[in-house]
């Protein structure tokens, strides 16, 4: 891959002003530009600019650093001061940004190749690395920019680089984060964040959407419900009528502690969508709110295999989340919400979720709009398995 990328960069430099490297979160864009910068240097090219490696504490991503590719000097770039609900956005360090822009300004005077890792919504709105990037664009150097796939066209148009070679790195990661990262994120959210009733950004209308989605579930006293990603119990408590037995699963022990404090009678278990620590066919309804989007697309179908496994045959699930009907609608929402959009999250399309549920064997699967950005997907475990292949429940 390293040789391929070097060859592509040299070929691009022969005929274009710049090249763009793209790929989803976790595919290794920064690792790729660091390797490429070393390879270009071995070709006797003067390489400058910035890379933004993760800042890890105890194995967890807590932010990003910014590295001067010429000197190796690094500074903190951004961090998550209070991760979790209602937004996981990063806070940028003015010193880190000033350092990065100074590095880019120097590179415009000294370098033949300038790397800018990475160009994102902050730059598209005129902040972040924009001053340094503008200077680099005005220099004769060859530019290597990294950005997320959804931003490629916008970044190229913004930088006046329409049509420059663009290379997509790797595949989508099999999981958005590790279980330990998810626990860390939501343990911190449970400790620091209030209940997201007055939510903004993609969670706008949270409480109304929960109330509307709750009407999609019919449950009678004496029956049992399961809420996956229960958090503090916000969805379950809107669905449960007196006499209903409520069970909840969540990967975050701190969320479960908070939930238990608010609802001492709930039966709570540590676990996650792909391995529900509950028996087959035990529930008369399965619920989930604002948790499904923490899965990677490859995990959607196995998650529904678990949901249908634990439902009693003939009974229904209702899964509420931030969903979109088209990629265009998702992109429009990102633009409208601007800074309130969370770039760390991937919100699925309703059709992807419906298809995953059907592939896992659910029937009568249907999307219901319950808020501006919120949809509930309902479906039923059939009385006898449908012919489509079903995955066995996760161990
Ligand atoms: C935005 S909160 C929503 C909590 C609650 N359902 C609500 O509507 O207020 C997301 C919840 O999903 C949980 N979560 C994250 N990843 C999960 C996974 N893979 N499986 C199950 N729950 C998960 C988090 O721990 C957190 O409690």
From TrEMBL:
Domain named Methyltransferase is located at: 225-314
Q: Name one Pfam family in it.
A: NTPase_1
**Molecular-function annotations in GO:** ribonucleoside triphosphate phosphatase activity
Q: Which domain of life is it from?
A: Bacteria
Record-linked PANTHER family: METHYLTRANSFERASE (PTHR43591)
Q: Please report the name of this protein according to its UniProt entry.
A: Nucleoside-triphosphatase THEP1 (Modular protein)
């Amino acid at each position: 891959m390293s040789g391929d990328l070097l060859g592509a960069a040299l070929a691009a430099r022969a005929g274009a002003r710049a090249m763009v490297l793209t790929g989803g979160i976790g595919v290794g864009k920064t690792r790729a530009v660091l390797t490429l910068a070393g390879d270009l240097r071995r070709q006797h090219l003067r390489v400058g600019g910035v890379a933004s490696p993760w800042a890890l504490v105890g194995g967890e991503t807590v932010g990003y650093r910014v590295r001067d590719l010429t000197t190796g000097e690094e500074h903190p770039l951004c961090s998550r001061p209070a991760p979790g609900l209602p937004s996981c956005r990063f806070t940028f360090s003015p010193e880190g940004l000033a350092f990065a822009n100074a590095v880019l300004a120097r590179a415009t005077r000294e370098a033949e190749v300038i790397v800018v890792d990475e160009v994102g919504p902050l730059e598209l709105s005129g902040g972040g690395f924009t001053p340094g990037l503008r200077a680099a664009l005005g220099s004769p150097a060859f530019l290597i920019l990294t950005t997320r796939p959804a931003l490629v066209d916008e970044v190229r148009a913004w930088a006046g680089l329409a049509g420059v070679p663009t290379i997509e790195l790797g595949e989508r990661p099999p999981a958005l984060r590790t279980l330990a990262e998810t626990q860390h994120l939501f343990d911190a959210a449970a400790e620091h964040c209030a209940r997201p009733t007055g939510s903004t950004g993609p969670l706008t209308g949270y409480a109304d959407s929960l109330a509307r989605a709750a009407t999609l579930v019919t449950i009678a006293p004496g029956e049992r419900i399961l809420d996956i990603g229960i958090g503090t119990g916000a969805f379950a408590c809107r669905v449960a009528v007196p006499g209903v037995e409520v069970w909840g699963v969540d990967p975050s022990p701190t969320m479960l502690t908070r939930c238990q404090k608010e609802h001492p009678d709930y039966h709570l278990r540590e676990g996650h969508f792909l391995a529900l620590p509950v028996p087959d066919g035990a529930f008369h309804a399965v619920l989930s709110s604002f948790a499904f989007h923490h899965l990677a697309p490859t995990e959607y179908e196995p998650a529904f295999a678990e949901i249908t496994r634990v439902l009693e045959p003939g009974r229904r699930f209702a899964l509420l989340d931030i969903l979109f009907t088209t990629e265009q609608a998702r992109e429009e929402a990102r633009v409208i919400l601007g800074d309130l959009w969370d770039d760390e999250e991937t919100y699925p399309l309703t059709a992807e979720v419906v298809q995953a549920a059907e592939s896992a064997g659910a029937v009568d699967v249907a999307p219901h709009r319950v808020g501006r950005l919120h949809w509930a997907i309902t479906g039923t475990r059939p009385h006898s398995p449908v012919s489509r292949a079903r995955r066995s429940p996760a161990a």
